[in-house]
Amino acid sequence: MPINRNRAEGWQHAKLSGHENERLIAELTEKDTTVQKRLLDAAHIQGCKIQNVEYGGLCEAGVDSVFDGKTKSKTDMWLNLTNGQRLNVSIKKDEGGQVFLIGIDRFIEGFEIQYKKNIPSPVKRALSLYFGSANDTREIINQYGGANKNLEIRKNRLVGDTLKAYDVDLYNGLLQWFNDNIIELFDFCFAKGLARNPHDWANIVWYKNMVGENQFDTIIYLPDITNRICATAGYGTKNGGSTIQLPFGFVQWHSPKNKFPGKIQFHHKYDKVLDFVR
Fold this sequence. Notes:
This protein has eleven helices and twelve strands.
């Protein structure tokens, strides 16, 4: 029978099973030369071997952030090679789920620093309305909100339909910005995050589950697919456009404890990512 868990129990289970999955994969990689060859071949590395394997687990340390201080790396497993290089592996045990959760202002500033790009002021305004950090969010909902007004008031954010009714240029501009920067957004979510140094960025995403929940085993070398990500972002069709659908998943407002402002939550979807591998 399926196990029923509340939200907090579900997150805790996912975290613990994720770390157990990382441990099992690290042990497999350490002892199985066939697996090692697959990883090296995926990264187009020849003439060397994997010397040893490390993984983060429950005691994962932070790495240097683009801001002052530390941040969590996108890397879950480190492969130290005999030629002195290192391969960084991000492990996904589920076909979908959160790949990046970040505050709105932190997202804006972190993206600008990481990619040395300025986000235009109208896009920042649209981000603040769509994800609920603008001071006048409630006023705009009351004036322009439609069928999804109750949802918007509860989450203190605008859905796409209301953003469009309020300012069609902001509505179109936000979507255009996502499409214009889709490669950087994919890279931000899967490889770099807020990590400052290249040796902390993920090179490989490995979809593999060894704790019995999913059956897949796909190794993806990120540089091979990054430039294949297509600019197909669009507002979702549910709740007046409460999500932005992305070529590798989707992004939505998120605040599990209903604290305002909410956060930007990026999700990955295995079947979408796989489209760029085939």
